[in-house]
Amino acid sequence: MATNNSRPSKAERTASAREKAAQMRAAQEAAAKRKSLFVKLGVLGAVILVIALVVTLIVQNNDTKVADAGAVPAGGNAAGGILVTSPTTVADKTVENVDITKLQTPSEVPAKPEMRDLTVGKKGEPVNITMVVDANCVHCADFEATYGKQINDWLAAGDVTVEYRNVGYLDGGSATNFSSRAANALACVANDTPKAYMPFVTALWGHYQQGEMKNAQLAEMAIVNGASKDVTSCIDKGEFRSFVQYTTQVAKYDGVAGTPTIVVQGKVVDLASQDFPTTVEAAIKANKK
């Protein structure tokens, strides 16, 4: 009886093995592509999540509610300035409280700074320098690095008084409102230990290249430069944040478009065309005649 041999030939078995191997490779390649896609989507999702968190953090911090009214630090005035009268002293404050809701909105903001309540030293008195500055401003840091020692020398000689109007112009670019927090720290130091104010000014802007600081770091810097440990609570609580908010709004209403804006004896100094020390020395000489 004849039998029917149905076993595949060697050639057929080889072809079948090749086909299965090709199918396996195709399946592996497809799986690898799916895995790569999932990884890319995962990374993209993580990046999007991080961006969303950063944006949320910035919005939340910059939307921090600050009271409309608040206390004024030692040396403070109705324009939001802190008047330094020597390397170790500040003036008596001229008001006890400020309220941003009581500021009159100008019908039109001046194109050039027209700053209110500027101090002008009379004959025989120290020349006044008023500065609108932001702790997060690179140009302010450069100004302090260039002229800080000279300003302290003028103060020590009794030749000038210096009014600092510390603003929070650059909070919009900070996730932690550093400009306003640092300005609050400056007010805290002036109120707590006036003799530490100028050393803290030097240290604060001298730290610019190292980036923003937390409140604890600001407090540590203040204490290292002579403030008492009590300054820590003031900085943490933002005791003078309302004052800073007020100072910032006053500067905007007065047409101060950028920092630093420097005024000597009531006149804005054009730092691009005027030499700052020469301008101050001329004013000092004129007041001594």
TrEMBL record:
Q: Which UniProt keywords apply?
A: Membrane, Transmembrane, Transmembrane helix
Membrane-spanning ranges: 37-59
Coiled-coil parts of chain: none
- Give all residue intervals belonging to the Thioredoxin-like fold domain: 117-273
Q: What is this protein called?
A: Thioredoxin-like fold domain-containing protein
Q: Which organism is it from?
A: Glutamicibacter uratoxydans
